[in-house]
Amino acid sequence: MKRAVYPGSFDPVTKGHLDIIERAAALVDELIVGVLNNNKKTPLFSVEERVKMLEDVTGHIPNVRIEAFSGLSVEFVRQCGAQFIVRGLRAVTDFEYELQMAQTNRSIDRGVDTLFFTTELNYAYISSTIVKEVAFYGGDISGFVPPQVVDCVYNRIQAKKRENN
Ligand code: PNS
């Protein structure tokens, strides 16, 4: 059974993430999307909300499962019985950090390899951070995130703005 884990923050999931999920799922028997529950970062969405949004947008892919995790990605990969980590590379600026992570992960567990997918050109500039920035200033994010996610982002940002006033 070939299993891969695609770890990330997914705060929120973008069309770029979804494209990687679809392409990686086509290569393996099972793809587990691991949503990092990171106490050090303050995400826009709770880990439960991020899991739910990912479930909503991946419902059409039968061999994809969404799980929350905390701690080291490579430990989660081991717990899942997976052999691969999936990551997307958007531009050369991603490369240094991604290479360092892949090499660190492999030094921790030599049974785990990282598979890199180059993002589709039309998604290459999209990041969760950019999505939140555009939404904060009232811009159109419908080209950046799946349709099910658009209102979740606007509503949460509006709620945060109200909280801060
Ligand atoms: O979506 P992101 O924020 O780019 O994903 C980064 C992620 C979650 C893959 C990375 O921060 C991670 O693996 N964190 C878990 C802790 C860990 O394993 N760190 C060591 C990697 S060298």
Task: Describe the protein's architecture and organization.
The protein has a five-stranded parallel β-sheet with strand order 3-2-1-4-5, with helices on both faces. By secondary structure, the protein is an alpha/beta fold. The protein is 45% helix and 19% strand. It is globular. The model has no long low-confidence stretch (mean pLDDT 96). It is built from six helices and five strands; from the N terminus they run βαβαβαβαβαα. The structure holds 4'-phosphopantetheine. The site of 4'-phosphopantetheine has 10 residues, from β1, α3 and α4.
Describe the structure concisely.
The chain has helices at 15-25, 47-57, 73-80, 92-108, 128-136, 147-164, and strands spanning 3-8, 30-36, 64-69, 84-89, 113-118. The protein is an alpha/beta fold. 4'-phosphopantetheine binds next to strand 1, helix 3 and helix 4.
Give descriptors for this structure:
165 residues; alpha/beta; five-stranded parallel β-sheet; globular
Distance between the termini: 52 Å
Overall average pLDDT:
96
Question: Which regions are unreliable across 5 or more consecutive residues at pLDDT < 50?
Answer: none
Task: Give Rg in angstroms.
Answer: 16 Å
- Form type: globular
Total strands: the figure is: 5
Strand content range:
15-25%
Helix amount, in percent? Answer: 40-55%
Query: Major beta sheet, specifics?
Result: 5 strands, parallel
Regarding quaternary structure, what we see is single chain
Secondary structure layout:
Blueprint: E1 3-8, H1 15-25, E2 30-36, H2 47-57, E3 64-69, H3 73-80, E4 84-89, H4 92-108, E5 113-118, H5 128-136, H6 147-164
Parallel strand pairs: 1-2, 1-4, 2-3, 4-5
The chain binds 4'-phosphopantetheine.
Residues 7-9, 36, 72-74, 101, 104-105 line the site of 4'-phosphopantetheine (PNS).
